[in-house]
């Protein structure tokens, strides 16, 4: 759409706060389809205006909500930016952090009022009428605890702190729920040393009578080293211009350092090694990246190497945006997933504090989990979600719920169980991740109960009977015990 001379096009950026959870689970829970739980921002004059604690504006598409799920064109405005900015200041007292509510009074109320002021048009009905649609369903309140969970998460991200209420002496405070965790499915390759795989802090609190098998497992860590690194490094060197002697020398130093680790594991990584790898990840095409990624999956296990990465955001952004895209070949996607999985397995990914980038990782990993063309891609994606569930802080419940719903959706789609070891491994990883989430978060435990996860677990146990090794049945039995305890505690 081209703007009329003198006019500005007004658009609406639409974001799904549930990150696909509503789309996947609404039919099952509510009996009706809800596409998303929408956050919106008005885009005009090259800026994006939105309600986030107070009325804010950023460069269009550069907010903390990440990449919009949809972009809607609302119309045109002939109003100058100064007039609209004055209007925003005038209405700002109506949109405060205290009055924000995801269902009753949210960002979409602001964007609807802004759109009407600028263009005379309301925002699309599917966004504006979502609360009424949600609450009109017979089981509309079934998702209320999840909505309230998102409500707290969104307000916390705005900087809101709930007032502290002092309990009266007549009523004793209830003890906080015990957070427990468990390690995931079997290790893909043994870690180079016990110190390389830190134990999850929550795993010490695991209840002794449940998750006993899972809690004894280690995170997935792919550290198998090729017998001859020379051909791999030769391929990587082809990415460096022949005239760049410094980078070529630095790559040789990285190769020598990696070779020395077998006998001298305490040797520090070359200075600026992380800088070079980041620049090469940013520069090379996905078709050129495989050998670089093959080596990087080993490098990120070393804390010495990670310390040489100048900007963790740039490093992971290059990995995700360039080498995990929809048109990238499967083996490159798989290797990118392995790098991230290794980073979570060694707790290095906790250095990633950018929520929008974490959301992009989760979103793409979930898409790979649904792949119908590559079991290896699905299995590797399941491994990353597993390590993510094991090591990410339990207070990031919105992300954990997104992963939990994707796992349940994937298990629900499993209608037959072949005898291949790949299928067994995939299912064990998914079930183990589900168990870890349930033990790590009371919200995830309640969600599993509300989704009737026990029925799915029983179905999978029956499907796998006699067609796989004993691991599937063992994990199913452990999960059933957890779900029984979760029901008792609700």
Sum up the structure in keywords.
single chain, 490 residues, alpha+beta, five-stranded antiparallel sheet, globular
The share of residues in helices is 40-55%
Low-confidence stretches: 161-215
- Average pLDDT number: 78
- Shape type: globular
Radius of gyration, whole Å: 25 Å
Class based on secondary structure composition and strand pairing: alpha+beta
Question: How many helices in DSSP terms?
Answer: 21
Number of strands: 5
Read across the widest sheet, the strand sequence of neighbours is 4-3-2-1-5
| Quaternary structure type | single chain
Sequence of secondary-structure elements: EHEEEEHHHHHHHHHHHHHHHHHHHH
Largest sheet: 5 strands, antiparallel
The span between the termini is 52 Å
Strand content: 5-15%
Please, could you describe this protein's structure?
It is a single chain. The chain is an alpha+beta fold and 490 residues long. Helix content is 51%, strand content 7%. The protein contains 21 helices and 5 strands. The chain has helices at 21-30, 81-91, 107-119, 125-128, 130-136, 144-157, 212-215, 230-237, 245-260, 273-283, 290-299, 303-306, 312-323, 330-345, 355-369, 375-391, 397-412, 421-440, 442-450, 453-464, 471-489, and strands at residues 8-16, 38-44, 47-52, 54-59, 70-77. A 5-stranded antiparallel sheet has the order 4-3-2-1-5. Helix 11 (290-299) runs parallel beside helix 14, helix 13 runs parallel beside helix 15 (355-369) and helix 19 (442-450) packs across helix 21. The longest helix is centred in the C-terminal third of the chain and has 20 residues, at 421-440. The chain is globular. The chain starts with 7 loop residues before the first strand and ends with a helix.
């Amino acid at each position: 759409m081209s703007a009329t001379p003198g006019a500005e096009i007004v658009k609406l950026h639409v974001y799904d706060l549930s990150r696909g959870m509503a789309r996947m689970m609404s039919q099952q829970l509510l009996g009706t389809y809800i596409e998303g739980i929408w956050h919106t921002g008005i885009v005009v004059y090259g800026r994006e205006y939105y309600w986030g604690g107070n009325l804010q504006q950023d460069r269009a598409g550069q907010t903390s909500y990440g990449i919009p799920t949809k972009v809607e064109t609302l119309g045109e405005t002939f109003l100058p930016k100064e007039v609209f900015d004055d209007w925003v200041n005038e209405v700002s007292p109506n949109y405060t952090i205290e009055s924000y509510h995801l269902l009753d009074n949210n960002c979409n109320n602001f964007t609807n009022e802004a759109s009407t002021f600028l263009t005379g048009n309301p925002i699309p009905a599917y966004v504006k009428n979502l609360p009424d649609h949600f609450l009109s369903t017979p089981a509309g309140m079934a998702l209320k605890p999840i909505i309230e969970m998102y409500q707290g998460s969104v307000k916390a991200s705005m900087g809101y702190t709930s007032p502290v209420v002092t309990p009266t002496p007549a009523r004793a405070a209830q003890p906080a729920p015990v957070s427990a965790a468990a390690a995931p499915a079997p290790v893909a390759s043994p870690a180079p040393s016990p110190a390389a795989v830190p134990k999850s802090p929550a795993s010490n609190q695991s209840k002794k009578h449940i998750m006993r098998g899972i809690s004894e497992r280690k995170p997935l860590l792919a550290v198998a080293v090729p017998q001859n690194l020379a051909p791999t490094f030769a391929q990587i060197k082809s990415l460096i211009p022949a005239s760049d002697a410094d980078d070529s020398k630095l790559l040789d130093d990285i190769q020598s350092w990696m070779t020395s680790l077998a006998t001298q594991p305490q040797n520090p990584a070359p200075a600026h090694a992380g800088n070079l790898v980041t620049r090469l990840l940013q520069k090379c095409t996905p078709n050129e990246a495989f050998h670089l990624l093959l080596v990087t999956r080993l490098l990120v296990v070393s804390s010495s190497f990670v310390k040489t990465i100048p900007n963790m955001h740039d490093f992971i952004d290059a990995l995700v945006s360039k080498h995990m895209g929809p048109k990238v070949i499967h083996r490159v996607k798989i290797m990118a997933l392995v790098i991230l999985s290794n980073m979570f397995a060694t707790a290095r990914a906790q250095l990633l504090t950018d929520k929008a980038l974490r959301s992009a990782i989760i979103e793409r990993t979930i898409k790979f989990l649904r792949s119908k063309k590559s079991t290896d891609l699905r299995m590797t994606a399941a491994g990353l979600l597993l390590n993510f569930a094991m090591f990410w802080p339990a207070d990031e419940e919105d992300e954990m719920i997104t992963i939990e719903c994707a796992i349940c959706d994937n298990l629900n789609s499993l209608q037959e169980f072949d005898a291949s070891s790949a299928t067994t491994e995939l299912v064990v990883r998914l079930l183990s991740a589900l168990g870890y989430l349930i033990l790590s978060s009371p919200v995830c435990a309640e969600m599993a109960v509300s989704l009737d996860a026990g029925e799915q677990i029983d179905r999978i146990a029956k499907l796998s009977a006699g067609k796989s090794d004993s691991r599937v049945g063992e994990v199913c039995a452990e999960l059933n015990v957890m779900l029984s305890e979760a029901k008792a505690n609700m």
